[in-house]
Backbone:
């Protein structure tokens, strides 16, 4: 049974989509277990915990055989309690917390990156083993009557429901609820309830708090770490009233992390915590009667030295704080947060229940993944797994920030603020590459230093500067937040603009940018990549506009003095933008991806065997570079974002690139969907959209076990809002020109625009727009102006 079948079965059970519940019947197939670790993970933007079985998987016990009946807590070998999990990706992560790792270059040329950052697996605090008398619960012995997982996206927790009969006939209902708190970001709570159906006996829990953990690795996949390496040294561990505290320090970055764990039992019992080999083992003993339910609450606190000078003191404070309130209070806080979130990010589709479920799932994962404190951003896999080693890419600015700009501008502002906090590292990166002015943001990073070892497909992607500038511009157009532009946004745009002047040059009266790589990583280090040049043009134009805005507001002098910005530079910006070379081919009537792209041999995508995809894993880079084949939307993406090319050229280009794009990147089909919508290719638009929306629920790429495709989830939202709903944000107002898929009855969504919240309802040819809160705003519906 595949994921889609799970979903259909859940819907047949009568689950209400409006309640934002996603349910799966769970079996113990290893591939399904790894997938579910990702799909049901818990995160809040600061911490992320993969959804592994609390008791572990078969084969992970060194002293307990799956068929062995009688094993008591007293005679369990410590080696089994302190087992090393190898079957699952048993990860707990802190957003923005990292260590350095060597990345040796075969040829040590100047400026090549030989060290990168990596997001760390922090600690295992999710391990709990349950003993019913002498029998241990696990999914590979006894009889499973029922096994389900539920992700409750309106209340903010996941649940695992199991009805199990032990080999000796003890029947028990187990409900395990897990929450990463949005209002108390350091808190991860496991609520483990047990009900005895047909027996009375002693009950014991063995709960483990393990700080000596390692990251997952796969030497065969370049998208995850290639080898295991120790990153954390435990520097302090102790217990206080049976609460355990473990402080560890990273080997090279010298950052500290503290994890604290405490337990509360719903009835009287004995709780004892001891350390064994720097791992805390807490034993909880009590008695359960027939038809009685008991609950163990396991509170885990995560703190780090990036945010807190004394992370161990912060952990103690947070633990005391959460223990001072009831679990019901914590759940109410979680629901209140999400009530507000879903009110702002409201999006509802009538006519396609499965799609509606997938879209809600995606939107929930976006808020789980987004850093909200200015110290971090959004990793390519969020906090759901270790794919791409926790690095931040340009994905955040282009694919995810639009969702938060419209739904939660404060989060979008925080994401831009994080880029602003790394300006100095971007300046150093520019200097390393020989640039005398401006900044160059890294293609992939955590703390601001470049992490790409393969510069043709990494560091050469200078468009990252234009992407960041685009996100600032889009934020301003949608919010009108001039204060933020004065504080941070304008400086980002000015410094990014300076780099274009240094990296480009005038030739025959045109401003050209050579030796760069666009979004398409199957074509690297080229002259005048269309996307890059258009990005640079928009960046330079808005540097001039922000200069005038700040000048007219009387807010320019302080910033100009800070960064030594002269009026002469603004003149150069304007000149370069006006004379930017934009590749165009008269014969085909398209915008070539770059100067040499059309001169290359064309690949027939249909001839590529299925077992040779994605191509980057099966073909040498030089083979790809020599052919007309694209990994993802490049020129097509530029036409979507900048929307100022000739309509016929846009159409010609879409049709051209449609035939040579493999969509080996999850960032691609959502963009093609938007382009197809705008061009009137509505069937194509929906086909591309369907592939995009359910990518992780269907595990289409086959690697969701390594983490979610967060940018694709943002892209799904863009495909609905920018594509089917036809939303555009321009300088003079908000534009809406919808065309829904044929079988959608209604599409309703909320947008925050210029401080106001508006509701848009599209039903066939009818469009209703209402003001929920805030001041009146200008809206253009099918190019006709209205005031809402």
Residues:
């Amino acid at each position: 049974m595949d994921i889609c079948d799970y979903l259909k079965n859940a819907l047949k059970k009568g689950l209400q989509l409006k309640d934002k519940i996603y349910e799966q019947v769970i079996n113990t197939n290893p591939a399904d277990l790894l997938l579910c670790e990702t799909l049901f993970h818990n995160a809040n933007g600061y911490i992320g915990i993969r959804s592994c079985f609390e008791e572990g998987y078969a084969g992970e016990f060194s002293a307990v055989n799956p068929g062995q009946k009688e094993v008591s807590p007293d005679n369990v070998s410590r080696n089994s309690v302190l087992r090393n999990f190898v079957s699952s990706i048993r990860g707990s992560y802190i957003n923005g917390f990292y260590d350095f790792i060597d990345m040796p270059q075969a040829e040590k040329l100047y400026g090549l990156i030989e060290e990168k950052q990596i997001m760390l697996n922090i600690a295992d605090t999710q391990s709990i083993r349950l003993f019913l008398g002498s029998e241990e619960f696990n999914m590979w012995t006894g009889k499973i009557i029922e096994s389900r997982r539920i992700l409750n996206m309106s209340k903010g927790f996941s649940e695992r429901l199991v009805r199990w009969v032990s080999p000796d006939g003890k029947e028990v209902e187990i409900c395990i609820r897990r929450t990463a708190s949005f209002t108390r970001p350091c808190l991860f709570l496991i609520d483990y309830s047990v009900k005895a159906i047909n027996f009375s006996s002693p009950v014991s829990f063995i709960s483990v708090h393990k700080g000596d953990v390692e990251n997952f690795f796969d030497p065969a996949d370049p998208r995850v770490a290639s080898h295991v390496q120790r990153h954390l040294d435990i520097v302090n561990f102790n217990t206080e009233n049976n609460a355990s505290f473990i402080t560890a320090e990273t080997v090279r970055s010298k950052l500290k992390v503290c994890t604290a764990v405490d337990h509360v039992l719903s009835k009287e019992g004995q709780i004892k915590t001891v350390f064994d080999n720097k791992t805390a083992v807490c034993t909880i003993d009590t008695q359960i009667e027939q038809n009685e339910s008991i609950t163990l609450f396991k509170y885990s606190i995560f703190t780090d030295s990036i945010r807190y000078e004394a992370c161990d003191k912060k952990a103690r404070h947070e633990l005391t704080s959460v223990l001072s309130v009831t679990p019901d209070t914590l759940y109410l806080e979680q629901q209140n947060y999400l009530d507000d979130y879903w009110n702002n990010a409201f999006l509802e589709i009538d006519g396609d229940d499965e799609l509606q479920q997938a879209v809600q799932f995606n939107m929930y994962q976006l808020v789980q993944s987004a850093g909200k404190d200015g110290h971090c951003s959004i990793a390519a896999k969020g906090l759901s797994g270790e794919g791409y080693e926790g690095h931040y890419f340009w994905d955040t600015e282009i694919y995810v920030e639009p969702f938060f700009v419209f739904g939660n501008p404060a989060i979008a502002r925080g994401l831009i603020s994080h880029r602003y906090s790394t300006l100095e590292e971007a300046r150093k990166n520019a200097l390393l590459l020989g640039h005398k002015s401006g900044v160059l943001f890294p293609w992939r990073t955590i703390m601001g230093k470049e992490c790409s070892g393969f510069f043709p497909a990494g560091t050469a992607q200078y468009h990252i500067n234009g992407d960041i500038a685009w996100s600032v511009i889009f934020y301003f157009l949608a919010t009108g937040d001039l204060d933020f532009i004065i504080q941070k946004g304008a400086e980002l745009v000015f410094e990014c603009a300076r780099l274009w002047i240094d990296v480009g040059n005038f030739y025959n009266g045109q401003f050209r940018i050579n030796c760069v790589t666009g979004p398409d990583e199957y074509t690297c280090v080229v002259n005048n990549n269309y996307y890059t040049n258009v990005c640079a043009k928009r960046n330079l134009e808005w540097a001039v506009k922000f200069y005038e805005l700040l000048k007219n507001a009387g807010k320019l002098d302080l910033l100009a003095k800070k960064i030594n910005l002269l009026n002469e530079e603004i003149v150069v910006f304007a000149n370069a933008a006006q004379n930017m070379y934009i590749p165009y081919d008269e014969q085909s009537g398209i915008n070539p991806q770059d100067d040499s792209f059309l001169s290359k041999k064309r690949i027939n995508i249909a001839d590529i065997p299925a077992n040779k995809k994605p191509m980057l894993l099966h073909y040498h880079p030089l083979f790809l570079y020599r052919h007309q084949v694209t990994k993802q939307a490049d020129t097509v993406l530029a036409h979507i974002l900048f929307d100022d090319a000739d309509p016929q050229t846009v159409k010609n280009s879409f049709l051209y690139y449609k035939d040579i794009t493999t969509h080996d990147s999850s960032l691609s089909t959502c963009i093609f969907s938007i382009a197809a919508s705008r061009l009137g290719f509505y069937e194509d638009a929906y086909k591309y959209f369907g592939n995009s929306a359910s990518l992780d629920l269907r595990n289409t790429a086959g690697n969701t076990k390594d983490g979610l495709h967060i940018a694709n989830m943002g892209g799904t939202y863009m495909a609905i809002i920018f594509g089917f709903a036809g939303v555009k944000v321009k300088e003079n107002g908000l534009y809406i020109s919808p065309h829904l898929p044929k079988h959608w009855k209604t599409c309703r969504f909320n947008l925050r625009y210029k401080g106001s919240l508006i509701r848009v309802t599209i039903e066939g040819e009818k469009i209703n727009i209402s003001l929920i809160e805030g001041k009146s705003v200008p809206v253009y519906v099918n190019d006709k102006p209205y005031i809402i």
About this structure: The longest strand covers residues 293-304.
